Amino acid sequence: MIKVFCIYYGNTVEITNLCESIKISGSLTNVCRELDITMGYGVFNTNISRTDLSAGTLVWVTLDDEEIFRGKLIEDTLKTDDTLTFTAFDFAWYLKQDEVTFNFNGTTAEDATQSILDKVGVSSDYIYPTGIAINHLIAKQSPYDAIMEMYTQVKKQTGEKFYLWMSGDKVMVTQFGGKIANTIIKPCTQGLSYADGNLISFEYTETMANMVNRVEVYDNNNNKIDTVNSDSSVQNRYGIIQKNYVQEDGKDYKTVANQMLHNLDITIKCKVLGNYDDYFTGKGVTVQIPWINKVSNTVLYITEDCHTWDIGTGTYTSELTLNLEKVMDEKEYQESSNNSSSNSRSDVNAIVEYAKTFIGTPYVWGGTTPDGFDCSGFVQYVFNHFGYNLPRTTYEQIDCGSSVSQDELQPGDLVFPGTGHVQIYVGNGQVIHSPHTGESVCIIDMYGFYAGRRIVTDSSDSSSSSGDVDLSNATQMQMNLSFYTGAASEGGNESASGKTLQYGMCASNVYSFGTQFYITGIDGLDDGVFTVEDHGGTDFDSANRLDIYVGVGGDSVTKANNLGRQTVTAYKLN
After folding, report:
1. In a domain, 524, yes or no
2. In sequence order, what are the beta bridge partners of 539?
3. Which residues, other chains included, contact 211 with Cβ-Cβ below 8 Å and sequence gap of 6+?
4. Exposure string (b/e) for 70-106, b if CB count within 10 Å is 16 or more?
5. Mean of the per-residue pLDDT values for the chain?
6. CB 263 within 8 A of CB 158
7. For residues 451-468, b (16+ Cβ closer than 10 Å) or e, as one string?
8. Which helix (H) or strand (E) holds 353?
9. Distance between CA atoms of residues 243 and 240, nearest Å
10. What CA–CA distance (Å, rounded) separates 250 from 473?
11. Into how many domains does the chain fold?
12. How confident is the model at residue 312 (pLDDT cuts 50, 70, 90)?
């Protein structure tokens, strides 16, 4: 029997008798399980109880006296038809809401996962041991995304697929499809009245839309290394469908390329008699549908489950989405370099390597996804992946960042051969771009230069960066900020350290030149690294006081006035 409880004004209250329907669901890409309930609430009908549940209420559900859900009410809606609907999520919801910052070097995926969970105060029940060391720089990412990024790298090396879920209030990281359900999905031989099966209805779909049967492998200089093919019979039947892969340090390219090969997708959506214990996302289940040879006696894998109890009729059903292959909610990142002179330089290397992974992607006018890019859509997609939110068009991107000459170009800079086209500089006089209709993303020699823009600035040049920052050894403090400009009336354009004033510098009478702070939470400026290169008046004799340089000219003066004085969180880096 299903029962629902909550904490109501400090007391434990069972509300099952008020419920009309109860639904618990989960999916591969939604780390938290969801509880949706419709219950009676007397808006106009005074004969119906008014149990006023609201956001933050603790709710739990038992099935045959075993707890199957515990979480917090996140959203509720009251309607004039005398119903209250609410949605609750289990505690994995917080793994998508929190943010963490770490720098892992040579740390196994499981140890890094435990460190992340410890940071946010979440317990673990089981974390799959990999023994594989990961180098990963995390800045302001959700714990879930960070964990799945690391296990995605493990998957590339081992082929195993992983799934993160919550058991009660403890995290589980397990192999996807590691357990097979005891109950087979099959139709009844003489209808549901003759209960030798459990299948009520189903929808079978197969598609070659995501098929990959050839992978060409390139090195970092765009030289072809190898070609990995699927079985020739697959290519003969479906035609050649190719992707490109740029070799990554520390990974066997043949292993990765073979994992990129992908056959037909076979999906079954089915409705069966309810079974919460067996039919759960991440499990395998044997399917016996006699009318379709491919699934007449085959193990498929549950990627979505939804269990519904209709309290009025007493019926309980489960709706499942099944996949022929084991899958994973993969999260991509580029590994950081242990030899990187600054975190922003690491960002640049990652951006360039990530851009190369799209070599061969077709040009599509107006395209902004890996299905097809135009020039600015490609640049926007690549930079947005690393948290640099560029605008959509070439005409807007040409005003982003700071101006650089052709002689000053560094990898990761934007190159505009004209006002209507944008490229990414990759070094050695070459750019990567999405050229025009009929061609694909490729690397070519530069053929013109109208303008260059630097989006990712180097912290060694005192510029502010919102990229990844290692805060593991930083000192956190509250900092009082003011803002100044390089107008002549404010002291000219040279700092007290003798360097030309530029954005990313700050003034202090306490800290020595070169002292760096990562400052977050400035209302009106991006988070970033600011370097002490200037002195100020007696107001700046405090260790909790900095003056931030914001530019030169009338617009900057207005900006400084608008920013005013603020108190924010700062991390002293050195």
Report:
1. yes
2. none
3. 238, 241, 262, 263, 264, 265
4. bbbbbebebeeebebbbbbbbbbbbbeebebbbbbee
5. 86
6. no
7. bbbbbbbbbeebbbbbbb
8. helix 343-356
9. 10
10. 27
11. 4
12. confident
What local confidence, expressed as pLDDT, does residue 193 receive? 61
Whether 237 is in a domain gets the answer: no
Q: Please spell the DSSP secondary structure of 516-529, one letter per residue.
A: EEEEE--TTS--EE
Per DSSP, the residues of 171-225 read EEEEETT-SB-SSPB-B-BTBTTS-S--EEEEEEEEE-TT-B-EEEEE-TTS-EE
Select from 385, 518, 403 the least CA-distant residue to 459.
518
| Letter string b/e over residues 180-193, b meaning 16 or more CB atoms within 10 A of that residue's CB | ebeeebbbeeeeee
Phi then psi for residue 352, to 5 deg, are -65, -45
Q: Are residues 404 and 383 in the same domain?
A: yes
pTM for the model: 0.59
Which residue type occupies 113?
A: T
Asked if 119 and 84 sit in the same domain, the reply is: no
Dump pLDDT digits (tens) for 245-291. Answer: 888 777 789 988 998 899 988 999 999 999 999 999 999 999 999 99
Find where tokens 């994973």 sit.
328
Residue 306 or residue 365, greater confidence: 306
Q: Which domain holds residue 419?
A: 343-459
CB atoms within 10 A of CB 472: 10
- pLDDT, mean of residues 442-451: 92
Instruction: Please say if the pLDDT value at position 239 is more than 90.
Output: yes
**Amino acid letter for position 82:** D
Q: How confident is the model at residue 459 (pLDDT cuts 50, 70, 90)?
A: very low
With a CB cutoff of 8 Å and minimum separation 6, the contacts of 10 are: none
Identify residue 405 by its one-letter amino acid code. S
Residue with tokens 């050695």: 428
Instruction: Provide the pLDDT confidence category of residue 212 given band limits of 50, 70 and 90.
Output: very high
On whether both 359 and 373 belong to a single domain, the answer is yes
Question: Above 50 in pLDDT, residue 112?
Answer: yes
113 DSSP assignment? H
Same domain, 120 and 157: yes
In sequence order, which residues have a C-beta less than 8 Å from that of residue 196 and are 6 or more positions away? 188, 189, 190
The region of weakest confidence among 104-113, 184-193, 404-413, 527-536 is 184-193
